[in-house]
Input
Amino acid sequence: MMLSMAKCDAALPPAFYRRSAEVVARELLGCRIIRRFDGESLSVRVVETEAYLGAEDRASHGWGGPRTARSRLLYVEGGVAYVYLIYGMHHCLNVVTGAATDGSAVLIRAGEPVAGEGTMRRLRSLTDSPKPGEIAGGPGKLCQALAIDRGLNHCPLTSRDLRIVGDRSVSRDRIAVGPRVGVAYAGEAALWPLRFVIRDHPHASRPRLV
DNA sequence: CGGAAGATCCACT
DNA sequence: GTGGATCTTCCGA
Output
């Protein structure tokens, strides 16, 4: 009993992340993020991701190589968190992928609450019973629901405070693929099909992808 | 050193 | 559908 429970919470190993961002983004769908917060385990199932390829990807913070203080956070070995602040008020959680020279990552865009939903509602300042997607149906919402901020930068994803465990795998035909959200400025890269969503999932973010 | 824009979300119309 | 919040990051002068 104890053994099977421990196995169930075994974190994905660093080798899982040390592959291309595109592959990791696909395979993270269905996995669970577990965030230890205030003595409680908060958990969401990943239902939407985006891959950011690094130096050659104009939409990525890693574009052009490790030139700035922020982009250097991406140029580390895969398997750790990269968290940044956007629009002065929202945090976004990424997992760093590939090798230290790649500067690639996967943005976690949406999750379905699995455990600790009451605390997540409180962190999101939602009072009544929320609609699907209100708790963690967007990158900023997900970070707020899981109490994630830049203090978790470079936190290994095998940590007690933040880990990702494999759970259900999602078959290819249940994954919708499309262009990434909010990167219209990125020229040709804006069209690359690097957004992955569990098809028709009610907890996915906007705009909807079919 | 100033200013523009951003991998977003929410309230309002 | 539109705009405001809010501040870090980055680029150009």
